[in-house]
Design goal:
Blueprint: E1 5-8, E2 15-18, E3 25-29, H1 41-57, E4 59-65, H2 69-79, E5 86-89, H3 94-100, E6 107-110, H4 112-115, H5 118-131, E7 135-140, H6 146-154, H7 159-176, E8 182-187, H8 191-204, E9 209-211, H9 219-235, E10 241-242, H10 250-267, H11 277-282, E11 290-293, H12 304-316, E12 323-326, H13 331-335, E13 342-347, E14 350-355, E15 358-364, H14 368-379
Parallel strand pairs: 3-4, 3-10, 4-5, 5-6, 6-7, 7-8, 8-9, 9-10, 11-12, 12-13
Antiparallel strand pairs: 1-2, 13-14, 14-15
């Protein structure tokens, strides 16, 4: 079992634990560079609200690229405005890491190998230790040290073995400075390499693992590749926090992460090997809302795609373990979705709302949103903000 690393818990920042028996946490990475104008006035309110919505949807950590000192100042000011722990992603310039540690930024992501001299690495680790801030070591297949890339190219070692060797080299630096509040990630665009590398390192260290497939691609390809890798690792008890990397929105990364964890839990003993500790921990925060919807066909008399897209963010923000069904016709409506706590479907020129297979309202399509909201509020004692 991995050791526990504490994150946040100072000032107004949420306190989290990663590793041990803690829940498997979902994180994502902001897609655009923020400027000071994004933190001011209406734009600032919108930024803070979007981050709050991500938290309600199940995101526990939010990472930002910090390429220069100005970006560090912006992120530092944002950290004063939100409660979700923020992570600064830093390469090359150790001074950026030192500046970020002056703010309530909860975690730093670096590669000791590209920060520079031994003295620079020591400066970052010393400051992080004094501030009680953890560091994630990020190792990617696309940025392996040159000597390891040569070994892979010559066939002396596999890419998975190279990832592990790079990770162990970085961990050795941390051990040298007696810095144990760390996590590690080893990511590749290959599902097989991601699985193999994390299996190997999990056998050799108790450092918590951040798992995911990097450069996974657009929405469909990225979700499939991440699910293929993460389901295997989670079923083997490997993984303490996940990020589903997509060429898509942060919201969809969080939703994909939630669904992967939910599937890992639902798979039960069928996929669990060696105790499946991570799978069991994945469900310890509750499943949340489960959305089922039909793919739509020529029988459709209700825009399931549009309705699901519209309601998805609000449903995922609800802290309720319920099933909601969005169906297209009477065939796939109350019958096939009779297990749903609340469902909506088309029926000719009308829309039906049902609970556990029993129709409770028949309405015009124009009234669907208002009626659905009323029934959802009735069902849930606590609705989304």
């Amino acid at each position: 079992m991995s050791r526990v690393v504490a994150i946040g818990g100072f000032d107004h920042v949420d306190a989290l634990s990663i590793g041990g028996n803690s829940p498997v946490l979902i994180q994502t990475m902001w897609k655009d560079r923020l400027g000071f104008s994004d933190l001011e006035g209406k734009a600032g309110e919108a930024t803070v609200e979007r981050i709050a919505a991500l938290k309600r949807m199940g995101c526990s950590l939010l990472r930002f690229a910090v390429p220069d000192l100005e970006a560090a100042e912006v992120l530092g000011n944002l950290a004063k405005m939100v409660s979700i722990p923020l992570v600064a992603d830093i390469h090359f310039d150790y001074k950026i890491a030192l500046r970020c540690l002056d703010f309530p930024i909860a975690k730093i992501r670096i590669n000791p190998g590209n920060i520079g001299s031994r003295e620079r690495v020591e400066a970052v680790l010393t400051r992080a230790a004094a501030k009680n801030r953890p560091i994630r070591i990020g190792v990617n297949a696309g940025s392996l040290p040159l000597d390891l890339r040569d070994k892979v190219d010559s066939g002396d070692i596999s890419q998975a073995e190279a990832l592990v060797e790079a990770a162990e080299q970085e961990l050795a630096i941390f051990r040298e400075f007696d810095f144990s509040s760390c996590l590690i990630s080893m990511k590749a665009s290959s599902v097989a390499d991601t699985i193999r590398a994390n299996r190997l390192l999990a056998e050799r260290t108790d450092v918590p693992l951040h798992i995911g497939v990097t450069e996974a691609g657009p929405l469909i390809a990225g979700v499939v590749r991440n699910a293929a890798a993460l389901m295997v690792l989670l079923s083997e008890g490997i993984g303490d926090t996940i990020r589903v990397s997509l060429s898509d929105t942060v919201e969809r990364e969080v939703i994909a992460g939630r669904e992967i964890l939910a599937c890992a839990v639902d798979s039960g003993e069928a996929l669990i090997k060696g105790g499946g500790a991570a799978v069991k921990r994945a469900g310890s925060q509750g499943q949340g809302v489960k959305i089922v919807s039909c793919p739509r066909c020529g029988r459709n008399s209700f825009d399931t795609h549009g309705f699901t897209e519209k309601w998805q963010p609000a449903l995922y923000a609800m802290d309720k373990n319920i099933t909601v069904a969005v169906m297209g016709c009477a065939v796939n409506g109350p019958g096939e979705a009779r297990h749903a706590d609340l469902g909506i479907t088309g029926a000719g020129d009308k829309v039906l709302i049902f609970r556990h297979g029993k129709v409770i309202r028949t309405i015009d399509a124009a009234d669907a949103d208002a009626a659905f909201r009323e029934e959802l509020e009735t069902l849930a004692t606590k609705f989304f903000n």
